[in-house]
């Protein structure tokens, strides 16, 4: 038996008018690509607890190279019960920092005009 769908509801039950919110990790990858930086590196830097209640802590490293200078941004996330959430937490911290630095910059704003 197939689920009933309406014009505003997809087969998965989500409304078609609601856009999918991008993850912090995908936003971070996008900013790095648009800024011509290396891809962010996610590292699991801590695992604690018994195997049935383990927490993971991730950090993300963003290598920013602009106008002859190099800045390494390293952000630690909060401990989480799965690796995906832990990496997302680290990406949220990096995004917060980059937004406060003024990223993503507008296209053409950082390039010199002739």
TrEMBL record:
Listed GO MF terms: RNA binding
Domain DRBM, first and last residues per copy: 23-100
Pfam family, one: DND1_DSRM
Polar residues: bias regions: 1-17
Zinc recorded as keyword: no
Keywords: RNA-binding
Name listed for the protein in its UniProt record: Double-stranded RNA-binding
């Amino acid at each position: 038996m197939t689920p009933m769908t309406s014009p505003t509801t997809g087969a998965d039950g989500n409304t078609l008018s609601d856009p999918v919110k991008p993850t912090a990790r995908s936003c971070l990858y996008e900013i790095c690509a648009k800024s011509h930086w290396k891809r962010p590196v996610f590292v699991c830097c801590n695992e604690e607890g018994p195997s049935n209640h383990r927490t993971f802590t991730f950090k993300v490293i963003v290598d920013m190279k602009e106008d002859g200078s190099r800045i390494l941004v390293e952000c630690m996330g909060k401990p989480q019960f799965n690796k995906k959430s832990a990496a997302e937490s680290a990406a949220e911290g990096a995004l917060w920092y980059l937004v406060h630095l003024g990223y993503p910059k507008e296209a053409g704003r950082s390039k010199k005009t002739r």
